[in-house]
């Protein structure tokens, strides 16, 4: 009875522009291109049906076409309402060998500026296939995985409770949308998610926040299929989260505001992998950077790296930029927002928009929101006894600004992340239920392989261990070179 749509993107005529960008990106993604060459003949993903939920960018297009080059069938949605590059989405639908009139690529359901209803409908579309359902999920942030889990849970209960929120936390506007989708689905087909869940052999998860959700599901005994934590491959989180952010954070700020960063005061909330890249990039632009942290180890790291470490409350009247990088909820409250310096720029680069309490700010009496341009809004606070009228600039409505205001991380760093993703998909598919229910990481030897695939392009000459040296430090000449507990 299910008749899934073929695709839904902004405008297929953008495909040619997208194809040119994809072609250039391929040159910058040696890891993915090496996997295409390695697996051209053996087709390890033959028979795999991959449901992908990950920012639909040019780099993701190269990932998708690598999965299909290895034999997979794929359906794709973005994992954020603002992150799609419409030309990339169009090019993937048309495919390298198709035409606008006769698309021959992969069904994509994504465009820049989706509503929340559209966002969840797109996520539903990647999971509803013609014939049999998907057998693998490739996720970023865990929304597709969560839809399957919550769908199955509420099919079993036969009812969707009023207080159900996506992931059972945060953003209530989205909760209404999510509940409506599950209720409609339950009415249409009370077994859909149970069936889909049964067909899935595993999920590979891209980001810190999605991995966090997976460990929570596993701890609660609710995880329905094995998961590979791609984020914690060293060649993912220590590269994408850090060096990717170092590139794409200033890109987002510049495209959104064109306000000079040099000489200004910038607050980076959180000093994990993303925070480290964020702080470095802002310092590189000449900002005086202040870091806030709750973890004494990360706070000490920030101090030793030369940053002032302070509490957010004490920076409100001096800072010109506030960037959240925590993956945590309500780290900037409505009181913080209304207390900031006039025309301060506020943005989040963590996965979800619940880091900054935009809804709380919207409910302050007399506050006015003005659209400067899409994904850039000025919020004006009315005069009070203590303070004249003033305003702040909010980027991407509190959603990750590097993908909302710019085009996310550049290809070379994403090649590292996505090479891990493809290896994880191959692992899950070839292992065919050998993985225990739980959250796994790729073996270190594969992590080292990902790095190796990216050395030549940078002109890196790696030193080889002698046999004597290898024995002395008790490793194999071919690796792995470090014990599991090593932190890089
Ligand atoms: P992480 O766990 O390494 O770092 C987060 C840091 O925030 C931790 O050091 C933690 O102690 C700190 N923190 C938590 N609550 C805090 C609070 N109230 N105040 C100050 N500091 C606080 O995580 P990672 O890998 O840096 O990721 C952070 C977020 O960024 C996640 O949501 C992740 O999914 C997302 N992400 C976004 C990317 C993008 O392109 N925009 C790329 C990669 C990750």
Automatic annotation (TrEMBL):
<feature type="binding site">
    <location>
        <position position="240"/>
    </location>
    <ligand>
        <name>substrate</name>
    </ligand>
</feature>
<feature type="binding site">
    <location>
        <begin position="349"/>
        <end position="351"/>
    </location>
    <ligand>
        <name>NAD(+)</name>
    </ligand>
</feature>
<feature type="binding site">
    <location>
        <begin position="272"/>
        <end position="277"/>
    </location>
    <ligand>
        <name>NAD(+)</name>
    </ligand>
</feature>
<feature type="binding site">
    <location>
        <position position="236"/>
    </location>
    <ligand>
        <name>substrate</name>
    </ligand>
</feature>
<dbReference type="GO" id="GO:0006730">
    <property type="term" value="P:one-carbon metabolic process"/>
</dbReference>
<dbReference type="GO" id="GO:0033353">
    <property type="term" value="P:S-adenosylmethionine cycle"/>
</dbReference>
<dbReference type="GO" id="GO:0071269">
    <property type="term" value="P:L-homocysteine biosynthetic process"/>
</dbReference>
<dbReference type="InterPro" id="IPR020082">
    <property type="entry name" value="S-Ado-L-homoCys_hydrolase_CS"/>
</dbReference>
<feature type="binding site">
    <location>
        <position position="241"/>
    </location>
    <ligand>
        <name>NAD(+)</name>
    </ligand>
</feature>
<feature type="binding site">
    <location>
        <position position="328"/>
    </location>
    <ligand>
        <name>NAD(+)</name>
    </ligand>
</feature>
<comment type="similarity">
    <text>Belongs to the adenosylhomocysteinase family.</text>
</comment>
<keyword id="KW-0520">NAD</keyword>
<feature type="binding site">
    <location>
        <position position="402"/>
    </location>
    <ligand>
        <name>NAD(+)</name>
    </ligand>
</feature>
<feature type="domain" description="S-adenosyl-L-homocysteine hydrolase NAD binding">
    <location>
        <begin position="241"/>
        <end position="408"/>
    </location>
</feature>
<comment type="pathway">
    <text>Amino-acid biosynthesis; L-homocysteine biosynthesis; L-homocysteine from S-adenosyl-L-homocysteine: step 1/1.</text>
</comment>
<comment type="function">
    <text>May play a key role in the regulation of the intracellular concentration of adenosylhomocysteine.</text>
</comment>
<protein>
    <recommendedName>
        <fullName>Adenosylhomocysteinase</fullName>
        <ecNumber>3.13.2.1</ecNumber>
    </recommendedName>
</protein>
<dbReference type="InterPro" id="IPR036291">
    <property type="entry name" value="NAD(P)-bd_dom_sf"/>
</dbReference>
<dbReference type="InterPro" id="IPR000043">
    <property type="entry name" value="Adenosylhomocysteinase-like"/>
</dbReference>
<feature type="binding site">
    <location>
        <position position="206"/>
    </location>
    <ligand>
        <name>substrate</name>
    </ligand>
</feature>
<dbReference type="Pfam" id="PF05221">
    <property type="entry name" value="AdoHcyase"/>
</dbReference>
<feature type="binding site">
    <location>
        <begin position="270"/>
        <end position="275"/>
    </location>
    <ligand>
        <name>NAD(+)</name>
    </ligand>
</feature>
<feature type="binding site">
    <location>
        <position position="140"/>
    </location>
    <ligand>
        <name>substrate</name>
    </ligand>
</feature>
<feature type="binding site">
    <location>
        <position position="409"/>
    </location>
    <ligand>
        <name>NAD(+)</name>
    </ligand>
</feature>
<dbReference type="GO" id="GO:0005829">
    <property type="term" value="C:cytosol"/>
</dbReference>
<feature type="binding site">
    <location>
        <begin position="207"/>
        <end position="209"/>
    </location>
    <ligand>
        <name>NAD(+)</name>
    </ligand>
</feature>
<dbReference type="Pfam" id="PF00670">
    <property type="entry name" value="AdoHcyase_NAD"/>
</dbReference>
<keyword id="KW-0554">One-carbon metabolism</keyword>
<keyword id="KW-0378">Hydrolase</keyword>
<feature type="binding site">
    <location>
        <position position="57"/>
    </location>
    <ligand>
        <name>substrate</name>
    </ligand>
</feature>
<dbReference type="InterPro" id="IPR042172">
    <property type="entry name" value="Adenosylhomocyst_ase-like_sf"/>
</dbReference>
<keyword id="KW-0963">Cytoplasm</keyword>
<feature type="binding site">
    <location>
        <position position="293"/>
    </location>
    <ligand>
        <name>NAD(+)</name>
    </ligand>
</feature>
<dbReference type="InterPro" id="IPR015878">
    <property type="entry name" value="Ado_hCys_hydrolase_NAD-bd"/>
</dbReference>
<dbReference type="GO" id="GO:0004013">
    <property type="term" value="F:adenosylhomocysteinase activity"/>
</dbReference>
